[in-house]
Amino acid sequence: MRHHQRRPLRLVLLVGTAGLALVAGATVAAEAGSPRHGSSLRIEVLSSAPHQVSAGDALVEVTVPRQVRPADVVIRAGATNVTDAFAVTTDRTLVGLVGDLRTGRTTLRAEVRRGARSGARAASLTVTNHPASGPMFSGPQQQPFVCTTARGRFDGRKILGQPIVDNQDRQGIAVAREDANGDYPQDGRGYPTAAAETVGWSANCAAERRIGYVYRSTTDDRFHWLDDPANPPSDIATTTTKAGRTVPYVVRWERGTVNRFVYSIAALAPVGEADPERPDASLWNRRLVFSFQGGVAIGHTQGTTSDSAMLPADLLGQGYGVMWSSGTRTSTHYNLQLGGETALMLKERAIETYGVPDYTVAVGGSGGAIQQYVYAQNHPGIIDAAIPQYSYPDMVTQVIHVGDCELLEYYFDATDRTNAKWRDPEVRQAIIGLNGTKEPKNLSAGEIAQWNQLYGAMQALGYQVMDRAPGSAAPPLMECKPGWFGLTPLALNPTFTDVDDLDQLAQGTEGVQWTHFADLVNIYGTGPDGYARVPWDNVGVQYGLEAMKDGVITPAEFLDLNAKVGSWKESRDMVPEGAPFDGPTTPQNFDPWSSRNMNLSPDGTTPAPRREGDLKAIRAAYSSGMQFQGDIDIPIIDLRPYLEDELDMHNTQQSFASRQRMLNVDGDASNQVVWFADARPAQDYDPTLRAFEVVDEWMANIAKNPRRGVSGNKPARAVDTCFTTSGDVIAAGPRVWSGIIDSRAAGECTQRFPIYSSSRRVAGGPYEGGIWKCALQPVSKAARSGLYGSWRPSRAELARLEQVFPDGVCDYRKPDVGKPRHHGGWGKGRG
């Protein structure tokens, strides 16, 4: 992999919106070969890429040759002299926050004033400024859009309050007139009631920026508001920073909106900080953290706040600066082009406030882990290290095999309900790939009641269910049910939504298509039928192929399964969901598989049609950067609790799917280490803080020895590892996960923690998944090549296979259809 290039820290300024101040005791590293040893000035934007400036300001550095006095340099933004915004650092550079930039392009120019004899050449740089409300590159913004700034509460007070009025056309959310105390008649969510006086509406959901302070209490070990940072209460806790200083635990907390989403920037502050607009960064450890969060959602909302993610006590107490946004929370949306754009704008704001960090590390689970892989791929430099927890490579390629879940479950439960073989979870597992068991672990009493009620309804209506373990209160389950249940309606059905607070939209939601692909219509585009293009495809997919070859199912069962499993309808043909997703639980409305939206056999004999993915959507999935391809070269500690026994949706194969995608790029994934912690019978150990320690050592090594690259600077603890529930190391080293994506004997961790599969891998696909549409080969050729193992189809069986697969069957030896031949340059926002 390419060497990780990291610019040495040069900024020694504390930057606030009101001006600049030197940070006492800051360490400076001069860049070797810098133009200050030459004869030219140089301009650089420190807070963002020059073409990705936002909100009207940019932190700018001017490098000055040695023969030039910094005081002789004049700096202009367009025609405006902005020299007074700059201060001299200890290494003779000039750094300043250039404000009032107009939307669009502005040329910055630095030159030596007339009369100064230096011979140094002037420098210029064109910057492009975008509105704080966005977008920069994510395309037209989504409407309707639910504003939620009024919902957020912390410790009994508003985090932001109502959004700013931006129209009188009844677009968006009503904004009420407030009294002198900021109060107004409101419901339990913070929205105005009918008794409130409406002063206008907000469609873009902007809110005034607020800065305040919180402190950690010894009474309840929680954060509380601190109204007077010069006079903390008696119950204030202390914390010890990475530098070893023990100080009162006070945090400066900035909140606002950027790119239409709520953001938060928090960092330790000294007691009695004089001016919150010009923060004293002396307790900041010069490391920034992106706090990303997961979930699954389909947009049209600003999202909700999270106290624990905005104010992670373990990190803030060590001096980390923590950045968070509702736009980098996948329970708000799964548009990772929009999320990456939001992350760029948020980091820009943090750097303009605190200065350039030593490095930026990201942390977050599930969708928060996905964002780390995808953003690092699409926007090199946005993060310098990643700590993805219970990760996937990306979200969109999970739709490929998760879309198979209910198709297969419906076949087992309803279509072939007389075959007793399907009552065994292990047989189903051999076809679905994801784990299944008669005795799922750690289900709550409510979950047990929920699934027993569902199974009871199925049995009452004559459907087949799996055999229960003797004496077990919990029903047998596949990961499809507790883990992915309802994801197909959410991702594919334009009539189904679970977005909150739609009742507050003045203009309503008529015409909205509630699918993941419509949420990302700027990427996938619209088809001739007016619906968002969808890449999901199962043409040629031979479900259960490996199970048939292994003898788990017979060739006859393999043929019947593939003839009748079917596919999903086109978006335009989908209808509202049944119970338990929508409507009453009646025999006529009961449909936990979403079977009413499946293409099934019309007569039980004619093969059910398969679905052809839209090629333009497939190409967009690859080229937009929504799919992780593996092109990433930063330190990665991919960690997770082992939750397979709980049938958790965060299945363990995903860490290694990411690794295989990285190997596919250049044969090297040594910058990724994988850690598992045992969660059997209950998880006591979370290795996240250990990962932060290892990342810090790793980044320090890179700073000292940049030529060694990422892998050449790995510290001793940066190796594949598995832990017990108490945190003891079971095994560590380069071979502990052998036998998963290689042909070696199973390593110690591989033996301890079984890894399961997916329906597309069982169908013959590669480990890493991510293939939207396979290349096809004739059935006769597949049979001659030995694809079916010891089964030699008869003439009648070949004829049936050709009926089921008239276009041929998947040939995974060939490149998948629609994928560009060359990787790199993923996403419009790369750079």
Structure write-up:
The chain has 831 residues and is of the alpha+beta class. It has a domain at 13-130: Sandwich (Immunoglobulin-like), CATH 2.60.40. Helices cover 22% and strands 18% of the residues. It contains 20 helices and 35 strands. The protein has a 12-stranded mixed sheet with strand order 17-16-20-21-23-22-24-25-30-31-32-33, sandwiched between helices. Strand 16 (210-216) and strand 17 form a beta hairpin.
Give the N-to-C terminal Cα separation. 18 Å
On the 0 to 100 scale, the average pLDDT is 93
Low-confidence segments, given as residue ranges, are: 1-37, 823-831
What would the CATH topology of the domain at 13-130 be?
Immunoglobulin-like
**CATH A-level architecture of the domain at 13-130:** Sandwich
Strand order of the largest sheet: 17-16-20-21-23-22-24-25-30-31-32-33
CATH superfamily of the domain at 13-130: Immunoglobulins
Shape: globular
Helix vs. strand class: alpha+beta
Tell me about the largest β-sheet: 12 strands, mixed
**How much is the radius of gyration in Å?**
29 Å
CATH class of the domain at 13-130 equals: Mainly Beta
Number of H- or I-type helical stretches? 20
